[in-house]
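Following the same procedure, sequence and fold were stored together, as reproduced here.

>
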Amino acid sequence: MNAKPISPKMHGLIDYALVGSLLTLPSILGLKKTVRNTYAAEGLALLIYVALTDHPVAVKPLIPFPVHGKIDPFNVGQFALQSFLKPFRKDKKTLLFNLGFTALAGITVLLTDWNGPTKTSK
């Protein structure tokens, strides 16, 4: 039995939800335009990367799922580090959103079964 409860399919669905949150929540929360633009760019980049990863909900499975698993920690680290940038650090709402997003993404990475079934391994 695998101790990691998040399957590749669930990871892909969570990633799409995270993309959706990056593209919508900063505006709903009324975050500053520079922060909203940063999140929009990150969300679009993440959408392409997620859609092209080999998992059951992929659009075009080009990136092997284990490779996605090696890249994800760098993405999480990048979100953590941006907490120190002035537009994120100086606004409490922005900082809390960024820290929460980083935590959710990090927990998802830690709990994912990187060897589970993908779109091409069925």
Summary: The first helix runs from residue 8 to 28. The radius of gyration is 15 Å.
